[in-house]
């Protein structure tokens, strides 16, 4: 396969995956929006966590709420925290409790019943994301998963599991950020309407 053919195949795979998600994922997308809207209207916060590229997505999505999503929309800052942002907390947690607890430990101190946690893992098996979802469940924090493949063991811990049916990490991550933007844009529309 030539480079041009490979490039075209990557783009086509991504487009096909987005089309599939647009036609099959709507009920779960709206459930996720409902959960987030309820949390924010009730004075709660949205948390995000993930590893590697998913950590970057967690930071990206939290920032869209905390600062701004669309430049033409003026609205208040909404409470959103990426549990990936603090290197001191991450390294202390990893050193003192182990890497599996680097998200669960700060969530247990910062989270409250009625908040929402987005766990982002392309495999659905990242131990530290799974542990954070477990802690969230035990605290009455809503759980939304941006997952891939078959959802792994994270799927069962999510109130809303948005599972991208692919085994290609890059395509899964592209779909996660697309779903994240769609959820946040629709959420923003709801919150600024009233």
Q: What do these coordinates show?
A:
With 194 residues, this protein is of the alpha/beta class. The protein is built from seven helices and five strands; from the N terminus they run ααβαβααβαββα. It has a five-stranded parallel beta sheet with strand order 2-1-3-4-5, sandwiched between helices. The longest helix is centred in the C-terminal third of the chain and has 25 residues, at 169-193. The protein is globular. The protein starts with a helix and ends with a helix. The model has no long low-confidence stretch (mean pLDDT 96).
Outline of the structure:
The protein is of the alpha/beta class.
Can you lay out the helices and strands and say which pair or pack?
Elements: H1 3-24, H2 26-41, E1 46-50, H3 53-66, E2 80-82, H4 87-96, H5 104-110, E3 116-121, H6 127-139, E4 142-148, E5 160-164, H7 169-193
Parallel strand pairs: 1-2, 1-3, 3-4, 4-5
């Amino acid at each position: 396969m030539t480079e041009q053919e490979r490039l075209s195949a990557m783009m086509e795979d991504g487009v096909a995956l987005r089309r599939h998600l647009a036609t099959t994922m709507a009920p779960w997308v709206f459930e996720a929006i409902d959960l987030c809207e309820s949390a924010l209207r009730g004075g709660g916060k949205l948390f995000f966590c993930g590893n590697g590229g998913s950590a970057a997505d967690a930071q990206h999505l939290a920032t869209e709420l905390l600062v701004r999503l669309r430049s033409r929309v003026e609205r208040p800052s909404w409470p959103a925290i990426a549990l990936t942002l603090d290197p001191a907390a991450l390294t202390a947690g990893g050193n003192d409790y182990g890497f599996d607890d680097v998200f669960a430990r700060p969530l247990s101190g910062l989270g409250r019943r009625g908040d929402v946690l987005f766990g982002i893992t392309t495999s659905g098996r990242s131990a530290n994301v799974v542990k954070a979802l477990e802690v969230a469940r035990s605290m009455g924090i809503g759980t939304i998963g941006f997952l891939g493949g078959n959802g792994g063991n994270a799927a069962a811990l999510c109130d809303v599991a948005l599972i991208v049916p692919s085994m290609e990490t890059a395509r899964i991550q592209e779909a996660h950020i697309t779903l994240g933007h769609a959820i946040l844009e629709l959420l923003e529309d709801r919150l600024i309407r009233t």
